[in-house]
Amino acid sequence: MATKKIALLGFGTVGSSVAKVLATGKFAGVELTHIYNRDVERKKSTPNAKFVPKTTVWTENINDVLSSDVDIVIELIGGLDPIESWLRKAITSGKSVVTANKQLIAYRGAGLLRLAKKHNVQLIHGAAVAGGVPVIPGLLQGQAGDQITRIRGIVNGTCNFILSKMEAGAEYADVLAEAQALGYAEANPSADVDGFDARAKLCILSRIALRAELDPEQVPTQSISAVQAIDFAYAKELGCTIRQISAAELVGATVQARVAPMLVPNTLPMAWSHGTQNMVVASGRFGGDVVFSGHGAGGEPTAVAVVSDLLAVVHGHSSVELPIKKRVVTGDFLSPHYLRFVVNDKPGIVSAIAGALAKVGANIDSLLQRPGHDKNALPFVVTTEPCLNSTMDKAVRIMGKMDCMLEKPLCLQMLEREER
Ligand SMILES: NC(=O)C1=CN([C@@H]2O[C@H](COP(=O)(O)OP(=O)(O)OC[C@H]3O[C@@H](n4cnc5c(N)ncnc54)[C@H](OP(=O)(O)O)[C@@H]3O)[C@@H](O)[C@H]2O)C=CC1
Ligand SMILES: N[C@@H](CC=O)C(=O)O
């Protein structure tokens, strides 16, 4: 097997870990010839630089890579522009590409994959969803024979790290800072906490598993930043915890899709995921549920996925290709909801809330009020019987205007207790 020349674009958390995994794995048939990054002198003094071969060229000029005889470009910078145009140039000059860039693959992947096919090269992105968990190769190859109708799970390690630590008593801001320091969060952590990272991953999974091309902008997202310690206490009383859940389901010609913090019953495996653990449950018509799980963020787990993709290219991998259809998204799921209010307590609040829910046609299932809270800032919870997210949005708009409300009511979808 002829040795393939490899270029690494980006020597950050994942890129530098790829250098380490490559060096320690001593894989035959690959040679790291180029590393591109801005300000390379700074990068040369980072801990993983010691794993870079002496012969590797470090450059701040992307054309040194694009005009070279490199065979495979590994892109670990992130973002859409100018990365797309760089990868297009690489592909048109006959280079295969390995990337962990979920935004690029979600928004522009269809065109890039077509271009790679036209130029008879590979574009592989196994690390773009769930970091070190081989969910993409598993779905592409291992479940190609099934008809997957639903994909659901936890695909953002930062949010899972934050929520599982909050469940154990930590403060939101402290754990977010910790996730950033550990290299789990995106360059702008709003991508994690506000759901945009998970949304991109959900769209990639939908393309592969549901064979549905979605416009990521159509998929509703809800931030985890409004979840508070009190929500974990009330969730526990309901036999649940709270996790950021990404869900997409084929319903006729449309796809129901949403990314949001949701109440997850403790009976479901997703409730047991802690730290950076990701978990994806693919539900197939013939094979039933298949669960993928492991570390979804972090340099070294993600580097394993990147190096595995690289080795697949080097060893002449070719993936199963099945037809994909563009699908319209609806964000409306029919499910019970959790509503948490913080009010300046006075008589008549519960009946006003019940009135607002009745007005939109939602039925109350339970009411929870823990004793001991300050009546001037009283948190309490109402759960509803199954209703649509859009119905709850209307109710929240009405209730948010009530004089007694000290903050916008928090509305969370509740997952059903059993997998299908
Ligand atoms: N971290 C993780 O757990 C995971 C990350 N990913 C994805 O992998 C990719 C890389 O992530 P990660 O390693 O965490 O990110 P980092 O920010 O740690 O690394 C990105 C690297 O690219 C460099 N860089 C950024 N912009 C430019 C530019 N315009 N020109 C040259 N160099 C540039 C940065 O340099 P500088 O240091 O100067 O900023 C940095 O070295 C992203 O697409 C991310 O979404 C996927 C799965 C998991
Ligand atoms: N920021 C992402 C990194 C992996 O994709 C996450 O936290 O999951």
User: What's the end-to-end separation, in Å?
Assistant: 47 Å
Overall pLDDT metric? 97
- List the quaternary state of the chains: single chain
Q: Mind telling me the CATH superfamily name of the largest domain? A: Dihydrodipicolinate Reductase, domain 2
Proportion of β residues?
25-35%
**Secondary structure category:** alpha/beta
Largest sheet: 10 strands, mixed
Reported by name, the CATH topology of the largest domain is Dihydrodipicolinate Reductase, domain 2
Can you identify the CATH class of the largest domain? Answer: Alpha Beta
Q: Give the ligands present.
A: NADPH dihydro-nicotinamide-adenine-dinucleotide phosphate, the ligand N[C@@H](CC=O)C(=O)O
Shape: elongated
- How many strand elements? 20
Number of domains: 3
The radius of gyration is 23 Å
In helices, the fraction of residues equals 25-40%
The CATH architecture name of the largest domain reads 2-Layer Sandwich
EC number: 1.1.1.3
Catalytic activity: L-homoserine + NADP(+) = L-aspartate 4-semialdehyde + NADPH + H(+)
GO molecular function: homoserine dehydrogenase activity; NADP binding
Pathway: Amino-acid biosynthesis; L-threonine biosynthesis; L-threonine from L-aspartate: step 3/5; Amino-acid biosynthesis; L-methionine biosynthesis via de novo pathway; L-homoserine from L-aspartate: step 3/3
